[in-house]
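ok so I'm stuck.
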Amino acid sequence: MKRLMIVTILAVAVLLATGPVEAKDHGIGTGAAIGLGLGAFGLGAALGGGAYGYPYYAPGYGYSYPVYPPASYYPAARTCWNPWSRSYYVCYE
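replied:
not stuck anymore, here's the structure
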């Protein structure tokens, strides 16, 4: 928390010390604006196409049946009788 406060104070001090800068041109050109718009459209289409493309071939969005791995075979544990404690215990023979 202390580090965040120090960084914020330094950033505000740098911004206030530099002062306003006058722009020589008024924004960007028409060609650059068209390029930025087309680039943003292409990037959005590429990132969004994976999530929303081909909805009929997509997985079930969490509504399908779960796929469980096949169960492993474990033989039943063998038990032996202990007459002293009158109970069964697992034999490792």
